[in-house]
Amino acid sequence: MTTARPNADILTLRCHCGRLRGRVDASSSGRRRPGLHVVCYCDDCRAFVRALKRPELLDRFGGSAVWQTTPARITLDTGREQLACLKLSDKGMLRFHSACCATPIGNALGAGWPFVGLLRACLEVDDASAQRLFGAPTHVHGRLALGDVSAFAEPRASLRTIARTVGFLLRARLAGAQRPTAFFDAAGRPVVTPRVLSGAERDALRAADR
Ligand SMILES: [Zn+2]
Ligand SMILES: [Zn+2]
Fold it and tell me: Are 153 and 54 in contact (CB under 8 A)?
């Protein structure tokens, strides 16, 4: 559970229709920020948003704004039964969303991973607060963007970005921040059975890029 501290920066997490609601503790303790702010232009992130039929959530180059943080910072308060999960392939990430109104919520790697990539689309946070709490975003996988983003995006993910991510995961794992988690049960299974897209479904979503 998230323990509220005085002046803690607690953000509201909610699906578009409001049935699924929760909180995210975005407060820093010490000098490190509690997550990594990313805009991802990869075709998997885009296919996820397209599978939900919410293309308006992509930026004009087909990117998704994500705040990568730890499961321990996320609490779902109401509407847990609305949580649904999609995988683009058998081996893909677990991409959680709301069933009620198809709001993307977060991407997870598995129960043991201290990682959830929360889509900005489910967070109540204005740009100024996002800048303050999350820092400026790193734009990654620009070579897969819908348009030329080379002026501000990394073509893939740079070594520096990969190193930051690995460092974040190692520190989070040492802190045990993979738990508690709203996304996996005690046995490490996702709390909802993921729907795995067929190859044809995935190809159709990717074809929308061309
Ligand atoms: Zn909803
Ligand atoms: Zn991506």
Answer: no
